[in-house]
Amino acid sequence: MAKITKNEVKKIADLIKIAIPENELDHYASQLNTVLDSMDVLAELDTKDVKPTSQTHGLTNVMRADEIKPGLDITKYKNTRNLKNNYFSVKKVL
User: Which structural domain, as residue segments, surrounds residue 11?
Assistant: First the structure.
């Protein structure tokens, strides 16, 4: 695989909006090349008989059923003065 150069590290840093000092470009190029070399090793694996998976633990999402619950009981708030059509009426906030 092609090796990442200092200029490519500069371009990548510019794309992701980070500043890398000039004296650290070689260090980051070396690290990126190590990652790419690791990916080359994975590309050599024979995966033709492996089924694609999105998870490996076998669990499923636990979802509760939607239930309609009664709203706020307005009768509990008898000393509320600002009720309109069984809703609390408040001043506009803009």
Answer: 6-43
Tally of structural domains, the chain: 1
Structure tokens of 9?
Answer: 């590290």
Q: How many C-beta atoms lie closer than 10 Å to residue 77's C-beta?
A: 10
Q: What are phi and psi of 56, to 5 degrees?
A: -125, -5
Q: Is residue 85 part of a domain?
A: no
Q: Mind listing the pLDDT tens digit for each residue in 70-85?
A: 777 777 776 777 877 7
Judge contact between 19 and 12, C-beta under 8 A. no
Tokens, residue 8? 């490519």
- Spatial contact of 36 and 4, defined as CB atoms under 8 Å apart: yes
Please state the pTM of the whole predicted model: 0.49
CA dist., res. 29 & res. 27, Å (int):
6
* 61 within domain boundaries: no
